[in-house]
Specification:
The protein is mainly α. Strands 1-2 form a two-stranded antiparallel ribbon. The longest helix is centred in the last third of the chain and has 13 residues. The protein contains 9 helices and 2 strands, in the order E-E-H-H-H-H-H-H-H-H-H.
Length: 205
């Protein structure tokens, strides 16, 4: 899928049937937050993810999950998505959190795009494109820079102290890497695992 050429999807095809999928950015933000929630059971994550995206859940759950993840990745295949992430920053560093950084993200969109996220619906794919393009002049991007900053011996003492302070001030409350979001269910969701192994009956349609 190409954001410049293709129409943004609001439904997916599964087993010859079209299923509406909730496309507003809020649902995909909630999905990512769900995957990071260590208090949720594996089965609960799967059930909630399906209910989150589908007004009517398809009987073929494996296919439904595949399409869900295709949508979450903005139409990119898994390998392309992983390469894009590695270009932006190391996958071992999580530099934002939709819950913890909500005010900064809201302010960044308002500042750069004049978009009030409280007053508008935005397709998830549009939101992600805008999110990834936020500029260094926004406080949110500056904070992500502090979190990802590597303090080196080549820095002056004052620089080291400054960045250490910024890292401490803006540290995420429970840092998790992109890989750490892959609990058993998240791993199955993100990497095409067999959902039947976690006790979920998968029908076919």
């Amino acid at each position: 899928m190409n954001l410049l050429l293709d129409e943004l999807p609001c439904e997916v095809m599964i087993g010859g049937y079209r299923y509406p999928i909730r496309s507003d950015y809020r649902y995909s933000v909630m999905f990512e937050m769900l995957m990071l929630d260590q208090e949720e059971s594996e089965r609960s994550k799967l059930e909630k993810a399906l209910k989150l995206y589908y007004p009517t859940i398809p009987q073929n759950l494996n296919a439904a999950v595949d399409k869900l993840l295709w949508f979450y990745r903005c139409g990119k295949d898994q390998e392309t998505d992983r390469k894009q992430k590695s270009k932006r920053r190391s996958e071992d560093k999580r530099v934002y959190d939709y819950d913890f950084d909500d005010a900064y993200i809201y302010a960044a969109f308002l500042q750069q795009y004049g978009v009030d996220l409280q007053d508008t619906e935005i397709h998830w794919w549009k939101f992600r494109a805008m999110f990834k393009s936020l500029g260094d002049n926004t406080e949110f991007v500056k904070i992500m820079g502090y979190r990802s900053m590597t303090i080196t011996n080549g820095m002056t003492k004052s620089q080291k102290e400054f960045y250490q302070d910024m890292k401490r001030i803006h540290a995420l409350p429970a840092p998790r890497s992109e890989r750490q979001k892959d609990s058993a269910i998240a791993y199955a969701l993100m990497h095409g695992g067999d959902l039947s192994k976690i006790g979920v009956c998968t029908g076919a349609k």
